Each structure stands twice: as C-alpha cells, then as structure tokens.
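Deliverable D4.2, example record:
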Amino acid sequence: MTISAWADIAGEFEGYDNAVLLGNGFSQNIWSGFSYTSLLQVVRDLNVLTGREVALFGNLGSPNFEYVMLRLQEAGIVNTAMEVAETYNGNYQNIKNALVTAVQSIHPHTSFEVPETTKKTICDELKKYRSVFTTNYDLIIYASIFTDPHYSKNFCDYFWSEGSKFDPLNIDLWSNKTSIYYLHGGLHLTKLPGGIERKVSHTGTQNILAQFGTNPPLFVSEGSAQEKKDAIRRSAYLTFCYRKLQTHAGAITLIGKGHEGDEHVISALNDNRKIKKVAIGLHNPNEGAERRWIAALPGVERSKIVFFRSAEHPLGSPTLTIQQDDPAF
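Output generated by the structure prediction step:
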C-alpha cells in the first residue's frame, strides 16, 4: 500500500489547470447531520414515511436512501417479470421526496450559520482549482464562495443569464474564474415549467431554504446510477456539468467521494482521455480500498493514480468540522 502525503503531491494537483471533485464525505466532515443515519432519523421524527417504508431501512440493513430506492426498483422489476401487480413506485417516490425534505430540514440554520472561518477556508481552497465538481446538494460551497469580497470575479456557476438562468448557448468563459459544477443539482437550483433552469437567491424576506416549496429543487437523488444518469440527461444544466467532467483536461483530486452508487460519475472519469493524474483521498487508507478504486478506474492508467489521506487535504481536514454545541447552533 502506497499512501502519499498531500503536502508532497499538492503541487501536482493544485493550480488553474486542475480540478477537485467533492463527494458526500466532504459535507459530512463539516456537518455530521448530512450523514444518512442523521437524515433517516429526521425522516422518522417528521413522520413523512409510512411504517413499512421506514422498516425497509432496517430490513435492508442500511440508512442509505439511494440504496433502499435501488432495492425497491429491483423488487418492482422482479414483480413485473413474475406478473405480480405491486411495483412499489409509490414507495420509491415517497422515499425520494423524504430525502429532499430531510436534507432541507437538517441543513445548518437557514442563514448558513457555518462558521465564517470554515467558509473562508473552503473558499480559499476552492480558488486553487480551475474546476470544482460536486455531487452534494447542500449549500456549503454556495455559501462559502460569498466570503470572497470579489466572488463574482473569482467564481462562476454559469447561471449568469437574465433572471439567474442557465442558457446552454451562453457558456463561454472569458476570464480565469473557478468554475463550480453541481453534478447532481442543489438546494439553490430549480427547474421551472418549460424546462427553464435557474438559481434561487435570497430575497428581502426569504432565504433559499424558505423558498424550497415555491421552487422545487433541481436535485438528482435517484436510486441507481443509470437512473441518475437519465435524470442528468433530462436537464440541460446537469448535462453540461457532466460533459465538463468527461472532458476535463488536467489533474483531478477526489475528496469524500466513493465509487459505489455513483458509477455514472466514475464512468465519466474512465471515459476521459484528457485526465493527466488522479489523486484519491481515502478516509481510512488500506490495501482493499486501493484495490477497489483501481478496479473502478480501468480507463485511467495505474501510474496516473495516487492515494492520500483525505484528512491531510485542507478540504478534508477535521478542523472544518462543526461541533454541534457551537454557539451558532
């Protein structure tokens, strides 16, 4: 097992030609409420699922909403093949909606009361990359970039057309900004009737989370990787983000990202022949984890893959973790 020290390889992976891909582990490191265990407890407290639906998580031995949805989908396929009437489509949709509700409810307070020092650290680190890809729905990245007094000069998300809309014909970047790509959408993005996709912003009386019901979010939370990819294809913005990952030219660093459940994201890396190097942050480094990652990336030459302890990276550091007894909460 070969684990590199992040300090030794940072120079190869930071810089304007390079990218970072942030997964759920990034958000969980900052706020433990984003773990599936916490989200499931919120769902229980809110009583938004039936007893049978809640019991599924225990019966399947997992708090992972997407895993349970995948199993429901597979059960429906089997029932259809066996000519059994029940398809579980209603249960599937209920659990999907419950995940959205839970993420909204568990989010650090609606005024984004993540400590300013934490947000500034995140902002400063993101600026070291040309591209920031994330599969997270939460508002941590969105809130963090606003700690930069020149955020509009240093960051972009391509929702710059009139009304904060995404226009696939207006995507040319003419300056050296850090581009943010929300691969699975987010709480601050919405799809309006007619297919218009836009960014939701604070109003004089409502913050983003308070507008949640008025503006249903652009939010990919399907059970299987194929369904997630299908959902991405139904969105002009998400398709744009996915293609950017497929064509990124440079090195890329993965933090808090697993290879199971998001195989479509890993497929984009395998399909990309322009990637120069891949640095994979491991929460608990071990030979088994390395072997599984190498097996998941057959399209990337082994010599281009390095591993490091995610906690050594500033974006995976335990110093970012919000303590639940923090005065902000």
